[in-house]
Every structure is written in C-alpha cells, then in structure tokens.
Design goal:
alpha+beta, Nucleotidyltransferase, domain 5, 4 domains, six-stranded mixed β-sheet, four-stranded antiparallel β-sheet, 20 helices, 15 strands, 41% helix
C-alpha cells in the first residue's frame, strides 16, 4: 500500500504549535513532506479549522489532486543485502536507495520512497536483532527508565525498611546522567521526575525515549500509532519534546540509558551498600553526591568526562525550558454549568462564560489552578482555592450575562417567589443576595432554599426561615434543611402558639381590705 502523506494530521499538529521538524520526528514522516504541506497550506490559506470536518482522503486530494490514488504496490528491497553493503566504506542508505530505485524502474516496478525505505531497514534491524553503529547527535535525545535495582532506608519511628526506587535518565551523546530517588513508581512520580530531570539538564532535547511502562504508554501496537496516556502526552507538549516509546522488548533502542542503569548500580547503589540511612532526604543527598562523582569521572575510551562533554558540546543544543514548569493535573468530567454561570468543585464555585449555562464542562486541576473546558476548548482559568476553603466563589465579571442575556432565573423572579411564601422567607432570600458581590452568585443558594417548599410545604419553610433568622445572620440551605428534617419548625411553632395564649383568670385575688383600702383607710 502507498504510504500517502497524512496531510490532515500534519495540519492538526501544526495548529497546536508543533514545528515541522518535531512533527516529522514524532510521526515518522519525511521532513520534506511536512514542509511541503506547510508550504501548500500557506499558499492556499488553508488551516486545520478549514478541513477538520473532512476525511483524511478528502484533505489529501485537496492538497495533491494529481497524486491522489487509492493504492499502489512497491517492490520490496533486499534488506539483507542493504545491511551487508552498509558495512563497506562510503556506502550510505541514500546511495543504496538510489540503486534500488534504478533497479525498480529497469524492471518496470514501483519503488518506495526514501523515508519508507529507511523505516523498513530500521524495522529489519530490530526484527533480526542486528547491530548498527549509530552516530549520536547532541541535544537530540534523552533516554529515561526505572532502575531494576532498588535502595532503602530505615524508618526511625517504626524500624521498618522503606524501599526506594531510582529514576535514571541520560543524554546519549555526552552520557551526562540524572538519577532521582522515589518512594513509588506511580504516574505522578514518573512525571515529576521528568520535570526535575529537565531542570537538572537546564534544557530539553527534541526526543524523550522511554520504555513501554504502564504509567506512560497506553497502547503500543506493532503497526499503527502509539497511544500515550493523557498526562504524559501533555508533559511532552508542554516541554515541546516528542515522547517516543521504544518497540516492545527492544532495549537496544535505548542502549545509552540501559548502560547507565548498569553503571548506576555500580557507581551509586553498590558504593552505598554498606551505609545505613534513616531518612529519604539523607539517602537522596548521598545519591546526588555519587551521581556528581559519576558524571565527573573520566571516560575510559574517550577524552574528558560526561560533565565536560555536556557543558562544552551538548548543552548549547538543548531547547530552552518553558517559563513555567509543567504541573501535574487531574481531570473531572461532566460537570454542569449552573444557572449562576459557575461550576462546582470541592464545594467551591468557579465562573465560566454565560453562553455555556446548562452545558457539561470538564475540569482540569493542578496544584495551583483550575481550568474549565467545554467540548475540548478551554473557556475559563481560575486560581484554585485551598482544600480547607468551602463555599467560596471565584467569579470573573466578564463571564456574567448583561441585562439582555439573563439566564432563565433572575433575582426579581426569585424574590417574587420568596414573597409569595412569606415575609421570613423573603427576608432570608434578600439576605442571601445582599451577602454576594454579584447577584448571579445568589441564584443557586436561593433556589435551593425555595425548593424546600416543594418537599416540606410553604408553611413549614416560612416557619423554618423565621426560626433560622434567630440563629444565623444569613441562613442557607443547610441551616433550613437541618431544622426541617428534625421537625424543629413544628416544635418552635407549638411553643410560639402556646406563649401567645391569654393567661388564666381563675385563682385567688386579694381585695382592697388586704392592702389597707376600704374601711381601713
């Protein structure tokens, strides 16, 4: 089958801000093909938004009408021959591809393109477990992995031996390495290790090569696209590095870090085996000291050491770090935007534009912020309230509707409902509106109070409001609900009625004579 240029995918990735080189390297595409799509899109003024509703075939035909074909058959190269020829001086894949192409034309067969030819040879090398010399380039790749060997420290309080795992990363060109001790190997830990690693290197490489670990990779088929988990893919986008898992059970594809893991086992773990640590911090400090020594030790078969090669030859090629480090995020899905133009998270309220009232929103939370997404588009960002804060509003005035675009309920209608129930209910609702800065913030609290009349009757709600006003400055739903559930309103009403009855006129009444009146004057 012909491997046609994936024009729609290129446009989609371009719309996210990815460069043509990054698209080519992460999606195994020819840089020339990606550049050609960029050029045609610019000439014709076509963006991803223009073609997002078209199929891949339709978009391809739009860009390359003369090349549009359903399928074509390529002549398979003899990769055994290719591998043998590459061992000879001066022979390159480009030369062998040109020879293969000339042979196909002489035999009236269809040759494959250079990119497909090279990818096929790479698959052949992996499948047959062949070894090829790879010329490393500075600033291109970071390889990461967990060390199979672990360490431990003693908990002073319990005497328990706490296992510690090691995250290991290396730059294949300079072999400059990073090691971090961790108490678990969960996804958040894996992501934080990457953030710390990039800070340690002071920059980011074009690619980050990892194993097929469950905390990073959801699915890695033999054919087709690799599926990363959402958080790991987001980290790659934030640092503009392509996350590239190796093929399953192919450690040679990240040989540098595999070698570093073995060296770490000797230089760090083995050298500290006779020391006893009583805290994670003390163990971490010792590991960092050994790591520094490891990076400064001279190479055996190469001039200088890892740190010197990194500083002099590779660091300048790293991409700059983003201004803000990546923050670990969690998601909550399907929250409804209420009539007051807010979504609720952890009993706090965050505004989003009034146009999305009654629509479902997804929330993305980091340690410091909360973002509101509707249909995949971010519509609001707020500073996250601390966990101990409850019933607080984060409201942006521009999210609220103007006088011509009110939601279904407004303050006048709510107050009219309250007045129809009774003066005490009206007083409670009025106080709720007085307590908020923007009247829309009072909609939900007020409606929740008024809806109690449907469950407990308007008369009982009026009595409950009267009682609540004696106990709270601004009664809310939970005050009134507690009164009604416990029947305190009925008890209060009985006591009130009893106190209003006239006192009894029966009993002994002393006359004027007792007080010296009448004949005693």
């Amino acid at each position: 089958m012909a491997n046609k240029i994936r024009v729609k995918l290129i446009l989609e990735l371009r719309s996210t801000g990815m460069s043509r080189n990054l698209i080519a390297s992460t999606r195994r595409m020819s840089r020339n093909s990606v550049s050609d799509v960029f050029r045609i899109a610019d000439e014709r003024g076509v963006t991803y938004q223009n073609v997002m509703n078209l199929s891949d075939q339709e978009v391809y035909r739009l860009f390359y009408p003369e090349k549009y074909v359903i399928e074509s058959v390529y002549r398979d190269p003899d990769y055994e021959y290719v591998h043998g020829e590459l061992k000879k001086d001066g022979v390159t894949l480009k030369l062998l591809w040109n020879e293969y192409k000339d042979k196909c034309r002489a035999e009236n067969a269809t040759p494959m393109g250079y990119t497909k030819f090279c990818n096929g040879y790479g698959d052949h090398v992996i499948t047959n477990k062949l070894t090829n010399h790879i010329e490393r380039k500075p600033g291109i790749t970071t390889e990461v992995d967990w060390s199979g060997s672990t360490m431990s420290y003693v908990d002073r309080d319990t005497g328990e031996l706490i296992k510690v795992y090691l995250f290991v990363a290396t730059l294949p060109y300079s072999r400059y390495s990073y090691v971090e001790t961790c108490l678990d190997m969960k996804q958040d830990t894996w992501l934080r290790c990457h953030v710390n690693m990039y800070e340690f290197f002071g920059g980011v490489t074009v690619r980050t090569v990892c194993d097929n670990l469950k905390t990073g990779v959801i699915h890695h088929p033999r054919e087709g696209e690799i599926v990363l988990n959402e958080a790991y893919e987001a980290l790659g986008s934030h640092y503009r590095t392509a996350i590239m898992p190796t093929a399953v059970r192919k450690p040679k594809q990240k040989a540098a870090v595999e070698s570093t893991v073995g060296n770490v086992a000797t230089s760090v773990i083995a050298s500290l085996r006779n020391e006893v640590f009583y805290s994670h911090n003390s163990l971490k400090a010792a590991v960092r000291e050994k790591l520094d020594k490891y990076n400064r030790d001279p190479f055996q078969k190469r001039d200088y050491n890892r740190l010197e090669v990194f500083q002099e030859e590779e660091k300048a090629y790293l991409q700059a770090l983003p201004k803000i480090p990546y923050e670990i995020a969690t998601w909550v899905y399907g929250r409804v935007v209420n009539f007051n133009c807010h979504v609720v998270y952890m009993k706090n309220y965050y505004s989003c534009p009034y146009q999305y009232v009654r629509q479902k929103a997804d929330l993305r939370m980091t340690d410091t912020t909360i973002e509101v997404y509707v249909k995949g588009e971010r519509v609001a960002t707020h500073t996250k309230f601390p966990e101990y804060v409850k019933n607080r509003y984060s409201t942006k005035p521009e999210d609220m509707p103007d006088q011509f675009q009110q939601p279904e309920w407004d303050d006048e209608r709510i107050l009219n409902w309250a007045s129809s129930i009774g003066p005490n209910t009206n007083d409670v609702i009025s106080r709720i509106f007085t307590s908020v800065k923007i009247k829309e913030q009072g909609y939900n609290p007020s409606l929740s109070v008024l809806r109690l009349s449907k469950t407990y009757s308007e008369a009982r709600l009026e009595t409950a409001c009267e009682l609540a006003l004696t106990r709270a400055r601004t009664p809310r739903y939970h005050h009134l609900k507690a009164i009604l559930v416990a029947n305190q309103d009925k008890i209060y009403l009985e006591e009130k009625n009893a106190s209003n009855k006239p006192s009894s006129s029966t009993g002994y009444v002393r006359g004027a004579e007792y007080y010296g009146g009448g004949r005693n004057d």
